[in-house]
Amino acid sequence: MGRLDGKVALISGGARGQGGAEVRLFTREGARVIFGDVLDDQGRELEAEVRAAGGDARYVHLDVTNESDWEEAVGTAVQLYDRLDILVNNAGIVRRYSIEETPREVWDEVMAVNSTGVFLGTKHAIPVMRRSGGGSIVNISSISGMIAIGAPAYNASKGAVRVFTKVTAVEHAKDNIRCNSIHPGPIDTPMIREGHADPEAAEQQRLSLVPLGRLGTVEDIAYGVLYLASDEAAFVTGSELVIDGGFIAQ
Ligand code: NAD
């Protein structure tokens, strides 16, 4: 028996990285998964891979900053399964500038994807979840949403997700919709190397700050998302799950 048997999930930013791992794990655990991204080729490849392995996954083009893309993605869940039980707001970008060097357009871009994208997904998922009898929303924030780690727009956008999660949890508890945030530390995905002049040195510097002495894997995060998405977490809402190898415990 799978931990997500009978559930329908929508995952943003699912073509690669952590989102890709969640697509694979969720389908292995019995969920029917719709996942979206702006990387259409990678998304379609992953859909084919999951289907070949016997999983039920459907890729849709989803730019999380585009409200009508969200309407279509949620509409796909309704059309195919007439329900939605799980939303994972995973899509994200990082831009590494100091406050003084951050162009206004970059600030707006990071906020649009990382914060507004979460709001739009939540807004459009809630009515369908309510009709389905409830649901679980898992927002991927970051330890950068809790402490300053040198990417100001990213930090602010992830901090917004942290508090928006609690607002969602409180406002929609009456609908049996739970909402929690996950706060990954440095995870071994393309993002961790993006925007660094010397990616190798940046990785070593991050590693030196992780008590467990390694980068996190995409599975380390996916299993946390799975727990919060599943009925095992039925009494968990408005909470923060830090998965960071001990980074912020120091
Ligand atoms: P990643 O870059 O591999 O994955 C991010 C995904 O989001 C990509 O598939 C990308 O195409 C997609 N995306 C970007 N803009 C989008 C948009 N406008 N619409 C839809 N999809 C879009 O990196 P990842 O590590 O897998 O990141 C997943 C989440 O984890 C992000 O929210 C990220 O901020 C967060 N996170 C990552 C780390 C890390 O160290 N890698 C740490 C903490 C938090």
What does this structure look like?
This protein is an alpha/beta fold. The chain has one domain (8-188, 218-243): 3-Layer(aba) Sandwich (Rossmann fold). 44% of the residues lie in helices and 16% in strands. The chain contains 7 helices and 7 strands. It has helices at 17-28, 40-52, 67-81, 104-131, 152-172, 199-207, 218-229; strands spanning 8-12, 32-37, 56-61, 86-89, 135-140, 177-184, 240-243. The chain has a 7-stranded parallel β-sheet with strand order 3-2-1-4-5-6-7, with helices on both faces. The protein is globular and about 45 Å long. The N and C termini lie far apart (39 Å). The site of nicotinamide-adenine-dinucleotide (NAD) has 28 residues, from helix 1. Nicotinamide-adenine-dinucleotide binds at residues 12-13, 15-19, 37-39, 62-65, 90-93, 113, 140, 142, 184, 186-187, 189-192.
Structure at a glance:
The protein is an alpha/beta fold. It is built from 7 helices and 7 strands. 44% of the residues lie in helices and 16% in strands.
Low-confidence stretches: none
> What's the structural domain tally?
1
> Helical residue percent?
40-55%
Q: Which second-level CATH architecture applies? A: 3-Layer(aba) Sandwich
Q: Which outline best applies?
A: globular
Q: What is the CATH C level class, in words?
A: Alpha Beta
Helical segment tally?
A: 7
Q: Report the bound ligands by name, code or SMILES.
A: nicotinamide-adenine-dinucleotide
| Biggest sheet details | 7 strands, parallel
Lateral arrangement of strands in the main beta sheet: 3-2-1-4-5-6-7
Secondary-structure-based class equals alpha/beta
Mean of the pLDDT scores?
A: 97
Number of strands: 7
**N-C termini distance:** 39 Å
Assembly of the depicted chains: single chain
